[in-house]
Amino acid sequence: MWKRKDLVGLRDLTAEEINLVLDTAKAFQEISLRPVKKVPTLRGRTVANLFFEPSTRTRISFELAEKRLSADTINFTSSSSSTVKGETLRDTVLNIESLKVDIIVMRHFASGAPHRLAQALPVSVINAGDGMNEHPTQALLDMFTVREKKGTVAGIKIAFVGDILHSRVARSNVWGLTKLGARVTLCGPRTLLPKGVETFGVHVTTDLEEAIHDADVINLLRIQAERQSECYFPSIREYANNYQINREVLKHAKPDVLIMHPGPVNRGVEVSSDVMDGPYSVILDQVTNGLAVRMAVLYLLSGVRKKRWGTVPVSPNQT
User: Fold this and answer.
1) To the nearest whole number, what is the mean pLDDT of the chain?
2) Rounded CA gap, 316 and 185, in Å?
3) What share of the chain in percent tops pLDDT 90?
4) Which of 5, 11, 57, 306 is catalytic?
C-alpha cells in the first residue's frame, strides 16, 4: 500500500514501493488501448503543472496522464508568470496552492526545490526533475520498460553512457535499479563522472567497450551543455568518436541488447541515426510507458489524499 504524500525522489523509496508503482502502471497501460481512453479516477481533483525549465516529453506526458484520469489541470510556465517580475518561488506556489489544488507536478532548475515545496505544503508534490538531483518518474518508466522487455529487473546488466555528472536521470536510475537487484555500470569521460561515484554501489569505467560488452541494456545520456560552466572534453566530435553508440560499436554488445534514451536525443552525438531508428531501440516505447507510469503515480498519490478525507480511491479499471 502506498503511504507517501509525495514522490520527490527514488533514493528513499523501498523496493516494494517501486514495484507497487510498476505494477500499478501495468494496470493503466491497458487504458491507452481502449476506444475511449479515459477513466474517472481523478474526477474533481486539480493538478497544477509548474515547469520552471523547458520540457517536452515529461510535460506532455503528465498533462495527458492527468486528462486520461479526468483531472482538472493548471499549466504554469515561469516565462509567462509573475516570477519574471520578481515574485519568489514560495509566493508563486502559495498563490497556486490557495486555489485548492490537490497535486503539484514540479520541474525546477534548483536541486532540492520540490523537496522544500513538499515539506512546506499539505498538497502532494511530484518531482518532474530538479537540477542535477533526481528525475524519479523517468527512472520509473525506464525500469518499467526494462521489466516489460526483459521480464525482470533483478540481475539485468544496465550500462549508462554519457554525461553522468549532470544527469538527474542517471541518479534516480541508480537508486531505483540497484534496489531492484540490477547490475549497473556508469561510463563516460572521467571529467563527466561525479566525484565519489564509486560509492554509489555501481561499476564505473571510462572504457565504452568494457561497459557494453555484457550489458543487457544501454541507456544513453546526452551532453547537457546547458548545465556545464566549463569545458569537460575537447570537442563534440572527439566525444562522439569515443562514446557514440553506432553499429560498429554494437558489434561488441549482446545481439539482443536494448538501446534506451531519456531524450532529447542528439543524433550523431551519443547515438547514430541508424541505431536510434533500428531494431535495438526502445526509445519510443519509453515514451509510451511514461504515460502509464505517470498515471500510476498520480493515482497512488491521490489515494493518500483521498483517505485523508475519508473516501476511497477509484479503481484504475473503473469506467
Assistant:
1) 90
2) 36
3) 79
4) 57
The catalytically annotated residue of 85, 100, 190, 251 is 85
Reported pTM = 0.91
Catalytic residue among 24, 58, 73, 145: 58
The answer to whether 57 is a known catalytic residue is yes
Contacts (Cβ under 8 Å, ≥6 apart) of 55? 107, 128, 129
Query: Residue 183 to residues 25, 240, 262, 284: CA-CA distances in angstroms?
Result: 23, 25, 19, 24
Which carries the bigger pLDDT value, residue 75 or residue 92? 75
Q: Report the number of secondary-structure helices (H) and strands (E) in the chain.
A: 10, 9
d(CA 21, CA 2): 9
CA 264, 270, 275, 281 torsion: positive or negative? Answer: negative
Q: Is 68 an annotated catalytic residue?
A: no
What pLDDT score does 313 carry?
A: 43
C-alpha cell at 48: 497544477
Name the active-site residue from 68, 107, 171, 222: 107
Q: Tell me, yes or no, if 135 is annotated catalytic.
A: yes
Domains and CATH numbers, the chain: 15-135+287-308 (3.40.50.1370), 136-285 (3.40.50.1370)
Catalytic residue from among 59, 135, 147, 183: 135
Q: What is the mean pLDDT of residues 31-49?
A: 94
- Cα torsion 276, 282, 286, 287: sign: positive
Residue 106's DSSP bridge partners are 50, 127
Cell readout for 25 is: 502502471
Confidence of residue 231 (pLDDT cuts 50, 70, 90): low
